[in-house]
Structure formats: structure tokens, C-alpha cells
Specification:
Blueprint: H1 6-37, H2 45-52, H3 59-63, E1 68-74, H4 89-99, E2 102-109, H5 115-118, H6 127-142, E3 149-153, H7 159-168, E4 175-177, H8 189-200, H9 206-216, H10 228-238, H11 254-269, H12 280-283, H13 286-298, H14 305-315, H15 322-329, H16 346-352, H17 354-364, E5 385-390, E6 393-398, E7 422-427, E8 430-435, E9 445-453, H18 456-464, E10 472-476, H19 481-484, H20 493-501, E11 506-510, E12 523-528, E13 545-549, E14 554-557, H21 582-587, H22 597-602
Parallel strand pairs: 1-2, 1-3, 3-4, 9-10, 10-11, 11-12
Antiparallel strand pairs: 5-6, 7-8, 8-12, 9-13, 13-14
């Protein structure tokens, strides 16, 4: 393991310094909570009886033997392909717990929505705030104080950040994230993209498009592109919250089952009574957050985590901002090209060497902290190993020395590019995120007249009418947390891609979101301050010259905005339950702080 890279060391020290007040308050709170609620014996007899009344054969162990009781918080539903396998997990996990003299109960469920289903429709406006709801639901589940450890069952976009945020407020308990694994690979990604673009151009029918999509999303397991869900799994490995190597093992396999078994056994061992106490509050520290950022950058992960990482950090009393991410991105090389940054998916990535290869390369070049407290007693070095079965026994082997596919995965000595490709751009239009890893460097600078829209539907209409067939920077505003919940805007990807393929210089500027599924078009996203409530995007007019440059890190309008009146936000229209989320919209803070009403109103 090499000495720590000086930039990683400097950024970590800066995060530690600015986090001191919040981190101190957080750790003091966790210490008090551990003393007050660290053992369920403080509950009255009637309270306890309610808590294990339906525990069956585990009742006496919980009541009289003081068994280590694991609280399972599950995001199971069988509409999400990624979460469908969780249906049978609690039953198996209870058996695994009994093997080590522990018990397990389902503490509660959290909602789990699929951005792939709601993408481009009204339901997507609930998506970001579902993260706060998941965190709150996690807190409700754990509020019974019946548990000695937390098993968190979640995979997808807002679900893992929400589970982590909620669980961190019970950080006196240890926690393990238990994944489910990716579905088998479907049709080639380039073929899927080709049909999508043909449909956008009117050259493919809806039936042909649906047939293509069904061949891509076709079985239980996580979607196989490297979007937010799979980026979540990489980050949990980098933070030491998984059993090592658990991220990308397919569901329904013997190895997957043994990894879940190991997660339960390990969680029982790291409780206060287990002899190797590792509370979540100590596992998730400033170094672990830096590791998560580094892992995200090295693999070209989802831009959504420019929002989720600051939010998760805040829940642990840690302050992380986009300057920190930008500084790390400048020195962390891009080691992986997984679709949409490359042609292969996460199954191909796993076969080429996967997370263990990436972790080994990052530790070996001093780009990640090797001395963090993980749930595994071997520390971060364990995550540079990959799990396997020898007979029925779970073992770990060293990561492969050579990449199995240099077009997918490369060593730090010969990366795809020298930086992590997640850049901060800023100027008189605000601060924003620009993901360069999927964009041709020749397109990193675009200067063109802007065309301003308030909805993505209006962009599509203008595209179909031929109004965008020119060099243009498309501005889509009033898409921030306070305006409409900050939906992802993937309806824009195909038409903007078509314009770019026609030879035009095209870019997107928006206070909305695009995830790791975003593609080849240069985009400044998450612009903050957002248009609603004072952001400069509300002052733009059609034809203003806008300059977006990832090389210089700039996002500016060349016109003088002084004296302009802000455009009014579109009127809110009720429906799809969005009206119920008004409190979350009105209370949300900026994207760089995490876009959370829950954290803002809690004073975190």
C-alpha cells in the first residue's frame, strides 16, 4: 500500500477541519444514544412483550437469553427488478442469525420507487424526495429500540442513500448493507441505444422500441448499466459497509446466498455483545466519505451522487461540497468504462476484475484511505479481494493482477483518462456538475446562443418542429428541488444526441438532474442556486450567449443580467400525489448541500 496521495490527504484534512463542529455534535449524540438505547433492557416488560410477541421460536432468545437481535430494514417490492430477490431474504437471514446464536426481525419496510418506470413522467417529481421518505421510514423502523445491529436491504437510486442517512442517526448500532446483485446481461447496449435514437427520429415503431427495452430489462436483479444503483454498490464497498466483493454477484446463485449469510454472521459479531464492536457512526467517517468519492470518480459513476454524497455525509456530521469532489476528480484517474461510458455492463466489469481490481489499484497508488474502520476485521485490504466458493465454503482470493478486458478496466498506471471526469463548473450562472467521462473532449467547450425552456416536454416539441437544428445551448430551468422535486431529465438525451450527431454544437444547462445513465452530450446539471428563489437561470432569455467549458471550469452568460426581472415559475399542477410533497419542496436546500428538506429543517 502506497503513501497517501498529497491531494487526497489535503482534501481529507480540509473536510475534517470544516466538519469539526458537526462531527463532534454527531459523535456526542451517538455516544448518548448508545448509553441510553444501546441495550433493549431499558424497555419496560410490556414494551418488550409487544416487540417479540410474534417472534415464534426466537421469542425466548430475545426475551431471556439476551440474543443479539438484528433489525432488518427492507426495501423489498416485486415491481423493482433489483429488489424482487429480497422477498425471501428475511426468512433466510433469520436462519443465518440462529447459526451464531443471534436473532433477526424485520424492523420495517421503506418505499422503493423505480426511476426507470417514472422517467419523464409526473411520478419522477417524487423521486429525489423519496430519499428523505426512506430515511424517515428507516428511523421509524429502528425507533422501537429492539435491535443490536442493522441489516439494510436496498440497492437502487435513492434507496441506498436514504437507508444510510436514516441508519446514521442510529449510528451507535453497527450496520451492514446487503445487496442483491445484477440481472443477467441483455442485448448489447449499443443496439439498445440505436433503437432509442431511431424511435426519436421516427424511424422505429413503439412496438420495436418496447421489444428492445424488454430485451434489456428482462429479469430479477439490478439493471446492468452503470447508473446510480450500481454506483451505490461501488461506494458501499469503498466505505467498508458491504461484505467484501458483494456488490456485483448475481441473485439466485450459491455465492450470493453465502455472501448474505456472511453479512448476517458478521453483523452479529460487530454488535456491542459480539466482541468486535464497530458502530456505524465510527465506520462512516471523513475518510470513508473520501473513499466513496474516489471510488465513484475512478469508475465514472453517477452524477446523482454529487447530491447524495453531501447528504449522506451531513447525516454523519460531515461537510462535503463540490469543490472537494472537483479537487479529488483532478487526481483520480478513470479506471473503468462501463456503459454508458463504455460498451460493456456491470457483469462484464465484474468479469474483467470488478471492484476488487479497482480497490487494489486505488490503494496501491495512495488514492484511497486504507486505514478506515470497515465491517470486515481485515480492513480495506479485504475489499481488494474477490469472493468465491470452495465447495460450500466462502473464501476470498486476491484481485486479478491483469484486467480481463483492457477496453473495460485498466490499471492506474494506464487509465482511460488522467482524471475522474466529474468537474465543477461555475460562473455568473451558478455552480454546476459536468460529467466529462462520457463526453468527447472535443465537446468539453460549447459557446452558443441559448434557448430557454421551463419543461422537458417543451424541448421535445421544439426539437420535433426543427427549431433546435443549429448550434444551441438548451437551458431547462425550474427543475430544482424547490421547484418540482428535481426530476431526472432523460427525455432530453435522445433528441440532444440526434442534434449533436447532425453536426451541431449542443449542450444542456439545467437545475435538474441527470444520472449515471446520462450520455454523450455535454451538460451542466444541478445548477445551484436553482431558478426558483433567485438563481440566475431565471434571468436568461432566448439568444443570450452562454459559455460552458469543462476545461476552464466555467458556466457563464456573456450578456449583462443586471436589471432583468426573473421569469415566473410555471404554475404547480396537482396530481400523482405530488401535492403531498409540498412541505419537502418548500423546505429543500440547494443541490450542493444535498437537496434535502429533512436535513435542512433538522439543522444538520
Amino acid at each position: 500500500m502506497s503513501s497517501l496521495h498529497p491531494v487526497v490527504e489535503r482534501v481529507t484534512a480540509r473536510i475534517i477541519e470544516k466538519s469539526k463542529p458537526g462531527r463532534t455534535r454527531y459523535l456526542e449524540l451517538m455516544e448518548r444514544e448508545g448509553e441510553k438505547h444501546g441495550n433493549r433492557g431499558f424497555l419496560g416488560c410490556s414494551n418488550l412483550a409487544h416487540g417479540f410477541a410474534a417472534a415464534g421460536e426466537d421469542k425466548s432468545a430475545i426475551a431471556f437469553a439476551g440474543a443479539r437481535n438484528i433489525g432488518i430494514v427492507t426495501a423489498y417490492n416485486d415491481m423493482l427488478s433489483a429488489h424482487q430477490p429480497y422477498g425471501r431474504y428475511p426468512e433466510a437471514m433469520k436462519l443465518y442469525a440462529r447459526e451464531v446464536g443471534a436473532t433477526a426481525q424485520v424492523a420495517g419496510g421503506v418505499p422503493a420507487m423505480c426511476d426507470g418506470v417514472t422517467q419523464g413522467f409526473d411520478g419522477m417529481e417524487l423521486s429525489l424526495f423519496s430519499r428523505d421518505v426512506i430515511a424517515l421510514s428507516t428511523a421509524v423502523a429502528l425507533s422501537h429500540a429492539m435491535f443490536d445491529g442493522m441489516a439494510l436491504l436496498g440497492i437502487c437510486d435513492k434507496i441506498v442513500p436514504g437507508l444510510v442517512m436514516g441508519a446514521l442517526r442510529f449510528g451507535h448500532l453497527p450496520a451492514v448493507l446487503v445487496p442483491g446483485g445484477p440481472m443477467p446481461s441483455g442485448i448489447a447496449n449499443k443496439d439498445k441505444q440505436k433503437v432509442r435514437q431511431l424511435y426519436t427520429e421516427g424511424k422505429a415503431t413503439r412496438a420495436e422500441l418496447l421489444e428492445s427495452e424488454m430485451k434489456s430489462y428482462h429479469a430479477p436483479g439490478t439493471c446492468t448499466f452503470y447508473g446510480t444503483a450500481n454506483s451505490n454498490q461501488m461506494m458501499m464497498e469503498m466505505m467498508g459497509l458491504h461484505v467484501p466483493g458483494a456488490a456485483f454477484v448475481p441473485p439466485g446463485t450459491a455465492l450470493r446466498g453465502q455472501l448474505t449469510r456472511a453479512a448476517v454472521h458478521r453483523l452479529a459479531a460487530i454488535t456491542r455483545e459480539g466482541g468486535d464492536y464497530r458502530p456505524m457512526a465510527r465506520v462512516v467517517d471523513e475518510k470513508a466519505i473520501v473513499n466513496a468519492v474516489v471510488g465513484l470518480l475512478a469508475t465514472g459513476g453517477s452524477t446523482n451522487h454529487a447530491i447524495h454524497l453531501p447528504a449522506m455525509a451531513r447525516a454523519a456530521g460531515i461537510t462535503l461540497d463540490w469543490t472537494d469532489i472537483d479537487d479529488l476528480s483532478a487526481v483520480v484517474p478513470l479506471l473503468a468504462r462501463v456503459y454508458p461510458n463504455g460498451s460493456g455492463d456491470v457483469n462484464h466489469f465484474q468479469a474483467a476484475g470488478g471492484t476488487s481490481y479497482v480497490v487494489r489499484e486505488l490503494l496501491g497508488t495512495g488514492l484511497a484511505h486504507g486505514d478506515i474502520l470497515t465491517i470486515d476485521p481485515r480492513g480495506m485490504a479485504a475489499y481488494a479481494q474477490e469472493p468465491a466458493l470452495e465447495g460450500e465454503a466462502l473464501v476470498w482470493r486476491h484481485a486479478p493482477v491483469e484486467s480481463g478486458d483492457p477496453e473495460m478496466l485498466r490499471p492506474a498506471s494506464a487509465p482511460f483518462q488522467a482524471d475522474g471526469g466529474l468537474r465543477l463548473v461555475q460562473g455568473n450562472l451558478g455552480r454546476a456538475t459536468f460529467k466529462t467521462s462520457a463526453v468527447d473532449p472535443a465537446r468539453w467547450t460549447v459557446e452558443a446562443p441559448c434557448r430557454v425552456f421551463d419543461t422537458q416536454e417543451a424541448v421535445q416539441e421544439a426539437f420535433k418542429a426543427g427549431e433546435l437544428d443549429r448550434d444551441v445551448i438548451v437551458v431547462v430551468r425550474f427543475q430544482g428541488p424547490r421547484a418540482n422535486g428535481m426530476p431526472e431529465l432523460h427525455k432530453l438525451t435522445p433528441p440532444l444526441g440526434v442534434l449533436q450527431d447532425r453536426g451541431f454544437k449542443v449542450a444542456l444547462v439545467t437545475d435538474g438532474r441527470m444520472s449515471g445513465a446520462s450520455g454523450k452530450v455535454p451538460a451542466a446539471i444541478h445548477v445551484t442556486p436553482e431558478a426558483l428563489g433567485g438563481g440566475a437561470l431565471a434571468l436568461l432569455r432566448d439568444g443570450d450567449m452562454v459559455r460552458l467549458c469543462a476545461v476552464e471550469g466555467t458556466l457563464s452568460v456573456l450578456a449583462d443580467l443586471a436589471g432583468r426581472e426573473a421569469a415566473p415559475a410555471p404554475p404547480f399542477v396537482a396530481g400523482m400525489g405530488r401535492e403531498l410533497f409540498a412541505m419537502l419542496r418548500h423546505g429543500a436546500d440547494g443541490a450542493e448541500q444535498g437537496g434535502s428538506a429533512m436535513l435542512a429543517t433538522a439543522g444538520l
